[in-house]
Automatic annotation (TrEMBL):
<dbReference type="Pfam" id="PF11821">
    <property type="entry name" value="ActD"/>
</dbReference>
<feature type="transmembrane region" description="Helical">
    <location>
        <begin position="378"/>
        <end position="403"/>
    </location>
</feature>
<dbReference type="InterPro" id="IPR005614">
    <property type="entry name" value="NrfD-like"/>
</dbReference>
<feature type="transmembrane region" description="Helical">
    <location>
        <begin position="353"/>
        <end position="371"/>
    </location>
</feature>
<feature type="region of interest" description="Disordered">
    <location>
        <begin position="460"/>
        <end position="479"/>
    </location>
</feature>
<feature type="transmembrane region" description="Helical">
    <location>
        <begin position="271"/>
        <end position="291"/>
    </location>
</feature>
<protein>
    <submittedName>
        <fullName>Polysulfide reductase, NrfD</fullName>
    </submittedName>
</protein>
<feature type="transmembrane region" description="Helical">
    <location>
        <begin position="577"/>
        <end position="600"/>
    </location>
</feature>
<feature type="transmembrane region" description="Helical">
    <location>
        <begin position="232"/>
        <end position="251"/>
    </location>
</feature>
<keyword id="KW-0812">Transmembrane</keyword>
<feature type="transmembrane region" description="Helical">
    <location>
        <begin position="538"/>
        <end position="557"/>
    </location>
</feature>
<keyword id="KW-1133">Transmembrane helix</keyword>
<keyword id="KW-0472">Membrane</keyword>
<feature type="transmembrane region" description="Helical">
    <location>
        <begin position="174"/>
        <end position="193"/>
    </location>
</feature>
<dbReference type="Pfam" id="PF03916">
    <property type="entry name" value="NrfD"/>
</dbReference>
<feature type="transmembrane region" description="Helical">
    <location>
        <begin position="58"/>
        <end position="81"/>
    </location>
</feature>
<feature type="transmembrane region" description="Helical">
    <location>
        <begin position="312"/>
        <end position="333"/>
    </location>
</feature>
């Protein structure tokens, strides 16, 4: 008996080390966070929004006009010449793909490393990723010239029974960028589902209630939902981590697998990845600092967030600077006169101005962040982030144009001069980006509501030492005529109260009961005895299936349907097929994680009896609920009511039949 008492008394103090201090300023609560973030969507647009949207749509129209002119006239309207066959088109493509790297980095890699500061900025960065990839996709699409023949890139035979060359880095690009865009969109949408449920429950018009209801798929914040949801989210993060590294690696292969001096180098894959992260974080800061000021969420995105991001910017900037130096060292050490000439020409040739803009913006400028006082000045950081973006665009320009404009024969040297079409499409791509971004902040929360709430101390089920006292004097909700009661629903004041109530329900013999919360309560699944999610095996099977399908399909094409020897490689060579096999594996796994999560959660389900209770509209705001019903054979309405009230349950109500 003494040991039992000691164990009982020691249990509340054991998790004391789990108490977390919020990374936000002030004293935010679940309700205040919901109100602050949702207000951006629910209130009329700010006075600056319409002028900004008008300017962005005009730039988008300019891009569309230039693209239409190019398609109807030909790519000769660009400033391309011989030998500069690539210029603004591929420069802009690589630039926008790099911009999109920060979203997946923040969402996936920082999630796996349990970096809590990501929670306030991940939604922002994820949206930026998708819009940047959309901008990037414009340029190779137009660059093919005959845009109506772009389906030749798809992994199917074209009208002449000719299959794409799966061994080409350009086709690897198609798979890498499309997979990246798809997985990033899935990641983004999965994160939005609980927040769409919050907007659904707060909607004041039928149209908004219907729209957000459809998008939320009937999300209820069930503990069983959160179990599969967090598993899917972690799996997507694990899948996206190698994906984000592979995308710009594959993009670098467009250059590194060639024999052009200045391109044919093994340093390109890590160099491109570091540069992508560098430019991506620069764009996140460029967008986030004005939005932080305009929407007044300095308490959610604090100076500490800016400090962390400046440190990442400084570190990746030094990696990029190291890569610049190693390029010169490699050219010198190789004793190859063509390589040496290419790099000397970059720094001292006709495009010297572009090279030194690149070095100044990317290497020298970020070094100011060694000083902590400068990392806490938002508008100074904003200016540096713009310079970083300028420098990273010039980096891609320098790599592409300066390696091409002087080839092996001096008689074929040329100089690239962009035309108005080049400039119009480049500037217009920003119009597309900002148009999508401005629409996004009007229809969806730009900060992840439920993830920010997990940073609050009360999100820890062990944080509250004194449980809420039992309810006294509340009306008896049970029918007086003794009619059948299919179930009961009770509201709790905190995550710790709900956690304790679930433990009592499990101890009382309940196995099929459910709990609802506005954010995942870690440890609640164990208190309820839910076990582990069945999602990982499903994802594993899907990933292996995707890998086998891609490998067998390409081998069949290369050896049977359309035998093709590329660069002397035998028909059955597997090595050049690995990039596409990898991308398809990630794609199948990501779809399995998302669709499997929805299937295990029984979603979409737009009708559920808990939705019929008015008090349940607080479930995705600051409400915590426990449901006991007749799915458990031990259910007794009177005993269930007693259990709920003794554990601090309030507003107990009778559920309708299923």
């Amino acid at each position: 008996m003494t040991q039992a008492v000691v164990t009982h008394e020691a249990e509340p103090t054991r998790p004391e080390t789990l108490e977390r201090q919020p990374i936000m300023t002030g004293t935010p609560t679940c309700a205040s966070i919901t109100e602050q973030v949702c207000a951006i969507v629910e209130r009329p647009a700010s006075a600056w929004w319409m002028p900004a949207f008008s300017v962005s749509t005009l730039l988008l129209a300019l891009c569309g006009f230039a693209a239409l002119y190019l398609i109807t006239t030909g790519v000769g309207v660009w400033g391309l010449n011989s030998p500069v066959g690539w210029a603004f088109d591929i420069t802009n493509f690589v630039f926008w793909v790099g911009i999109g790297h920060a979203g997946t980095l923040i969402s996936a890699i920082l999630l796996l490393f349990r970096q809590r500061w990501r929670n306030s900025i991940n939604r922002f960065a994820e949206a930026m990723t998708i819009f940047a990839v959309a901008c990037a996709g414009l340029f190779p699409l137009i660059h093919v010239g005959r845009i109506w023949m772009v389906w030749f890139l798809a992994p199917v035979p074209n009208a002449n029974a000719i299959w794409p060359n799966f061994r080409s880095p350009l086709l690897w690009d198609v798979f890498a960028v499309s997979t990246y865009a798809t997985v990033s969109t899935l990641f983004w949408f999965v994160g939005l589902v609980p927040d769409f449920a919050t907007l659904r429950d707060r909607a004041t018009t039928p149209l908004k209630r219907w729209s957000y209801g459809i998008l939320s798929l009937g999300w209820r914040g069930s503990a069983r939902h959160w179990l599969n949801y967090e598993t899917a989210y972690l799996l997507l993060a694990g899948l996206s981590t190698p994906l984000v590294l592979s995308v710009h690696t594959v993009v670098s292969f467009d250059f590194a697998t060639s024999v052009i001096p200045g391109w044919h180098t093994t340093i390109f894959p890590p160099y491109f990845v570091a540069g992508a992260i560098f430019s991506g974080f620069g764009m996140v800061l460029t967008l986030m600092i004005p939005a932080r000021q305009l929407f007044h969420f300095e308490n959610l995105v604090t100076d500490r967030h800016l400090d962390f991001m400046c440190q990442v910017l400084m570190a990746t900037g030094m990696i990029v600077g190291y890569a610049y130096a190693m390029e010169f060292f490699t050219a010198w050490y190789s004793a190859n006169p063509y390589e040496q000439f290419t790099f000397i020409n970059r720094a001292l040739g006709p495009y010297w101005w572009a090279y030194w803009i690149m070095v100044s913006c990317n290497v020298l400028t970020p070094q100011v962040f060694w000083f902590k006082s400068l990392r806490n000045r938002p508008w100074f950081i904003f200016g540096i982030s713009i310079l970083v973006n300028v420098g990273m665009w010039f980096e891609r320009f320098v790599i592409i144009v300066t390696s091409l404009h002087r080839d092996f024969l001096p008689s074929s040297w040329g100089y690239f001069i962009p035309t108005w079409v080049d400039f119009a499409q480049f500037i217009g791509s920003f119009g597309l980006f900002f148009t999508l971004f401005l629409l996004f902040i009007r229809v969806a929360p730009m900060i992840t509501i439920f993830e920010v709430k997990t940073l609050l101390p009360e999100a820890d089920p062990h944080s509250q030492r004194e449980p809420t006292p039992p309810v006294e004097g509340e009306a008896d909700p049970l029918p007086t005529d003794g009619s059948f009661v299919p179930g009961l629903l009770a509201r709790y004041e905190s995550a710790s109260d709900l956690y304790a109530a679930c433990k009592k329900a499990k101890a009382a013999g309940y196995k099929h009961f459910d709990a609802y919360s506005p954010f995942p309560i870690h440890g609640l699944e164990k208190a309820m005895g839910l076990g582990k999610s069945k999602l990982p095996p499903m994802v594993l099977v899907a990933g292996v299936s995707g890998a086998l399908l891609a490998l067998v399909g390409m081998l069949w094409v290369n050896t049977v349907e359309y035998p093709l020897i590329t660069a002397g490689k035998p028909y059955g060579a597997i090595e050049p097929l690995i990039p596409i096999v990898f991308e398809v594996t990630i794609l199948f796994s990501a779809f399995a994680a998302v669709l499997g999560m929805f299937a295990l959660n029984g979603l979409p389900r737009y009708h559920h009896r808990v939705f019929e209770k008015e008090i349940f509209k607080r479930s995705m705001d600051d409400g915590f609920f426990l449901m006991l019903d007749t799915r458990d054979h031990c259910f007794d309405a009177r005993e269930a009511l007693k259990l709920m009230r003794e554990s601090g349950g309030r507003d107990v109500c009778v559920l309708d039949r299923k």
